[in-house]
Amino acid sequence: MKQVFLKTLLIVVLLTNNCIVNACTIFIANDGEHLWIGNNEDEEPNMKYRMWYYPAKKEDYGYTIWTELVKSKLLYGLMYLNPQGGLNEYGLFMDYTAIDEVPVVQDVHKKDRKKQIVTDLLKKCKTVSEALEYISKYNLIKLKSAQLFIADASGDYATVNGGYIIRKTDPCFTLTNYCINNGHKEACWRRDFSSEYLTQAKTYQLDDIKNILFKTAQKRPSNTVTNFSMAVDLKNKTIHLYFKNDFTTEAIINLADELKNGKHHKELVNYFPLSLIDVLTEKYASSGIDATIDTYKKLRKNSGDKYNFKNNDAVNIAIQYIVSGKSKDAIKFLECLKEFDPNKTDIYTWLGVAYRRENKTDESATNFNKALMLNPNDYVATLFGRQDNQKVIFKMNDFEGAEQVSLVADFTDWKKNPIKMKKENNVWFCEVSIPKGEYNYKFLVNKEYLADQINLMFTGTGPKIYSKLYVW
User: pTM for the complete prediction?
Assistant: First the structure.
């Protein structure tokens, strides 16, 4: 028992001494009337999270924080010690972005701050100026591989690191994953899209914030993905919460109402309907495709409010059937989905792929044509459905903010002969003549190798994730 206590104590110490952060995009959108914070939390796909709520107490302000949850449930109750970000009742917001390590400036006249500072700032400060005054008493010796973004309900903001503090310069600003000290900038497709959008828009509504969040999100099948997104209305202290790049399903958190419920917490996943993936994957493994389809129909009929039928989880299951060589099962499942969503473009697109894998060219063409009728710009239907004489068209509106994008694949001998893509009207494209066969590919976005975020057929894990292409 003593060993368990000591182990738990050690982990508590580690939690209080470290900030767990990963790739993120944070931006502030201020048009003088509307004031928004957008925040994408990017980490490993299997990471879990919790929202914690703490009402005002004596001299402390009320606030919420969000944290990761470690794998051991024994430690769930300790994760409040390691917030990723937070919002208090006066509209003071903060969140982190990861960066390469920067030397910490240590003033011999200041105390070394060995534990995280977010919680104290939320408890004690109403504004950015107050937060920076509080911070000024300390050397932030642990804040060397991250930047803490702080904003308030007046539109003021600052970026804090143990080696520097950068104050507000413009009404709108975007922060990603590189050190911004001394005006330093690096190529970043997420920052560049957000910055350009904020410059061009004259006013910022919720849909604008959602669009930026979606376009700057990191998506499957990458190793780092946007697990959740927030559009925070600082003036109203309201959080619009989204899960796993699904912006069709929204949870609205009114901080004042939550604080009235007393001290409590809630797993982030519980703000949303359940995913179909686990239940249908288990049913398929144990009982096959017919039982899986039967389960889907029953859930749709009897548990429509419990499970999420709006997102693309069901279609993604069918895609994995195709990848694993089970195109017949994919066809059965997609034909079932079509009964419920007859105007969903993705269903016809992937039916086109599945039928073509089964050499049913007429059925494939019919479904590709239907997909392109519903959406003439559908990327995957174009990629697989318009291969005249093995000419493949990569035409996608992802990575709009990138400075350059190249296609690398086994048919380019990977890095030896990359194919530079061109950008027109915010669409990256190239046409490549490729012999019939099955191929793996990636995109080189600026200097970063990324799998295709739209064609969700992929193989491999970790750094060896590759998008799949079939040429007929």
Answer: 0.92
Nearest-CA neighbor of 56 among 273, 315, 263, 291? Answer: 263
The reply to whether 267 and 402 lie within a common domain is no
Q: Is 292 within a domain?
A: no
pLDDT of residue 12: 47
Mean pLDDT of 384-393: 94
Reported as a pLDDT band with limits 50, 70 and 90, residue 4 is very low
Residue 396 tokens read as: 């996608």
Same domain assignment for residues 140 and 264: yes
Which residues 6+ apart lie within 8 Å of 294 measured at CB?
none
Distance CA 455, CA 383 (A): 9
Cα atoms in the Cβ-side hemisphere of radius 13 Å centred on 34: 18
Q: Which structural domain range is residue 453 located in?
A: 387-472
Asked if residues 134 and 120 have their Cβ atoms less than 8 Å apart, the reply is yes
Q: Are residues 162 and 144 in contact, defined by beta-carbon separation less than 8 angstroms?
A: yes
How far apart CA 187 and CA 178 sit, in angstroms, is 10
In angstroms, the CA 49 to CA 66 distance is: 7
Measured CA to CA, the distance from residue 15 to residue 98 in angstroms comes to 17
Residues 391 and 265 in one domain: no
Residue 353, in any domain of the structure = no
